[in-house]
Amino acid sequence: MRRVLGTAAALGLLAVSATAAAPVARADGAQGGGTTLPPIPRVLEGKACTKPSAKKASEPPWQQAVLNPALAWDLTEGDGATVAVVDTGVDATGSPALAGRVTAGPDVVAGGSAGTDCVGHGTFVAGLIAAAKPADVGFAGVAPGTHILAVRATEHDGTTSADHLAAGIEAAVKGGAKVVDVPVALASGSAALTAAVKAAQAKDVLVIAPAYGEQQESGKAAPAAYPAQLPGVVAVASLAPPDGLPDQQVPPATAPDLAAPGQNVLSIGPRGAGHFTGSGADLASGFVAGTAALVRSYRPDLTAPQVLSRLERTAYHYQSAGAGPLVGWGTVDPGSAVTANLSTSVHAGDTGATEALQLPAPESGAAGHRAWIIAGASAALLALMALAAAVIPRGQRRGWRPGRLAAEGGGPSSGGAAGGPAGGAAGGTASGA
């Protein structure tokens, strides 16, 4: 067992309490506590910019309970890492949660600076990555110490093209970012976009993008999405509240590498301290980018392929009754991605998953099934705690120490646990990790 058994009981209780406490967010933008937040747009319908939000959530958002990034914050909050957001720009001065941690890069479409954000989408994503820890509501970015490099690669209304994204990625790499989030899903790519991604990879930069765009009709697969379709780009799928099930019933044409909360997630917006809500795999990419920033901060010796390997092999997943086709390695786990002891080498580019998150079959009586699942998980955790209480003293008397199996090359060859981030997998293998 690669994770220290002595922590199993505490972490198991955290997993159960997090599942029970996660507020249910509805499609109308309502968060826990009854607060209805304005939606963040991808593209403006008119010429007017998105208005600031005058509302703030009254409870922590569900994404905070599912990911629990605070498990990594004793070691790192992402300080020293820079994540580029290639999108609609980032409000560098009007969003208190990002104050002092945004560099206004170029607007590669119209010229000038990307330090403003008329649409608000880029600021929302930047908040998912790096919003500061607040004193009131329990919302913060995955890596609240990380620096954001804003690059605008869209028109005034948020529309863009493959060539614009290519120029944005090039500007992000030139600006020194080692993680580049491109929260855009286009129907086609271009030679320039392919070249920009290859050049970024040659500079040891990890590029992340959504595996699909708008929600598809039930029973239909989402078409290929660019730049996520390109080799080496980390393709991200979206999960839905309250318990983090994938939001796609059919695997998308662009196979996801990782999943993260994406439906009805909460973040900040431009020109104020209020909160917005939004949905989509484009937003889920921000959580993966934030987790990559934590790893690049705490383990600066790792290459981009090694960082990706660590994210994949510490992802957690679960089996659901009647589960459908496989989709990726599982849900990104910030705590395990930073803390896991992965000792066995993996060749760069080895991304063949041995275990994976599964898409659920269409549900009937979903609420009742979820109640039974939670009850069963609680019973299993109690059994694990009893086992740990019996095994640990005996192991200590026999001279057992945490990490001994890993040092000797024992234990399982890949990570993955059913408990979520608080009890997520620390096992697995990653190159140099």
How would you portray this structure in words?
- The protein is α/β, with parallel strands linked by helices and 433 residues long.
- The protein is 30% helix and 11% strand.
- It has helices at 8-21, 62-67, 70-73, 121-130, 162-174, 191-202, 281-298, 304-313, 334-339, 366-397, 404-407; strands spanning 82-87, 102-107, 147-152, 179-181, 206-210, 234-240, 245-246, 258-261, 265-268, 275-278.
- α6 (191-202) links the parallel β4 (179-181) and β5 (206-210).
- α4 (121-130) packs parallel to α7 and α5 (162-174) packs parallel to α6 (191-202).
- The longest helix is centred in the last third of the chain and has 32 residues, at 366-397.
- The radius of gyration is 21 Å and the shape is globular.
- 54% of the residues are buried.
